[in-house]
Amino acid sequence: MGESCIQRKVQCASPTGLHRMAYLEWGNRDNRRVLVCVHGLTRSARDFDFLARDLAPRYRVVCPDVAGRGDSDWLTNPNEYQVPTYVGDMVTLLARLDVETVDWVGTSLGGLVGMALAALPGSPITRLVLNDVGPVVTRASLARIASYVGKWPSLPTMEAAQAYVRSVNAPFGSHSDAEWRFLAEHVVRENPDGSLRMHSDPSISVAFTTEQPDHDTQQWDLYERIQCPTMVLRGEQSDLLTRDTANEMARRGPRASLR
C-alpha cells in the first residue's frame, strides 16, 4: 500500500453498543486539507488505494471501512446497518481527525452518507463528489443489489472469488484481469479451512432487504438542503443513477456539475 498509508481505528457508538471503525490514512497528518473517501455497500476502503496515493501529496486522505465491512467491527444489532448509523460514525471519525472541514468522495452508499452529512446545518463538508449515486435510487438497482448482498457462494480459491466479484460488479464496467483481481482480493477473508469468504457481515442485508420498496426511492428534500459545491460522476451503463436523475441534479439543490 505504500509507506504513507497507515491503518487506524476509532471507537464509535450505536444504540446497542460500541464498535471500532477501521480507516486508512494517507499523506501528511498535519495537512489541514482533508479528503474523506467512503466506499459502496459491499466494498471496502481499499477501493480508493489508487486515488488516495495520487492525492496524498495534496491531501490528508482518509478512507474508512464502514461498520460491518473490511476491518471494522460488525454491529450487534443488524437493524443498525443504516445511513444514520454511518453518519454518526463519520462524525466521530472527523472528531478523531481533529478537523473542522473536509472534502468528500462517496461511491454509492458512501455518497448517500455524504449527502446526509452535507445536508445537515453546519455540515463539515465543503466539497462533495457523488460517484454513481443521487437522491433517486431505482427500484431495479435495489432489486439487483438485494439479490446478492449478504450472500455468497462457496469460494474455494481466489479464482472463484474473482469470478464472483466480476459477476456481482458487472455494472462497474469493463476492467482488466489485474483490476478485477485487485477488486476481489481486498474484499475476501480466509476461513480456518483455507477457503475464502466475503469480508462483510452477512447481516448488512437485514436492514437493506427488510423493506424493499416497489418503487424508486427519492430523497430530493435531502439533496436540496446541500449547499456546498457538488460534482456527480455517472457510469454510462449505471442502473443506480439514471441519466435523467443526474441531469435533474444539475438543475436542483446545489446544481451539481456532471461528469
Per DSSP, what share of the residues sits in E-state strands of 2 or more residues? 15-25%
Order of helices and strands: EEEHEHEHEEHHHEEHEHEHE
Unreliable parts? none
User: What number is the mean pLDDT?
Assistant: 93
Q: Total number of β-strand segments?
A: 12
Q: Please tell me the CATH architecture of the domain at 6-136 and 222-238 by its name.
A: 3-Layer(aba) Sandwich
Q: What is the terminal-to-terminal distance?
A: 28 Å
Structural class: alpha/beta
Helical proportion, percent range: 25-40%
Structural key phrases:
globular, eight-stranded mixed beta sheet, 9 helices, 12 strands, alpha/beta, 259 residues, two-stranded antiparallel ribbon, Rossmann fold
What does this entry look like structurally?
The chain is globular. The longest helix has 15 residues. It is α/β, with parallel strands linked by helices. It has a domain of about 150 residues: 3-Layer(aba) Sandwich (Rossmann fold), CATH 3.40.50.1820. An 8-stranded mixed beta sheet has the order 1-2-4-3-5-6-11-12, sandwiched between helices.
Offer a concise description of the structure.
About 30% of the residues lie in helices and about 20% in strands.
Please give the structural blueprint.
Elements: E1 6-14, E2 17-26, E3 34-38, H1 49-55, E4 60-64, H2 83-97, E5 102-107, H3 109-118, E6 125-131, E7 136-137, H4 139-146, H5 158-168, H6 177-185, E8 188-190, E9 196-198, H7 204-210, E10 217-218, H8 220-223, E11 230-233, H9 243-249, E12 257-258
Parallel strand pairs: 3-4, 3-5, 5-6, 6-11, 11-12
Antiparallel strand pairs: 1-2, 2-4, 7-10, 8-9
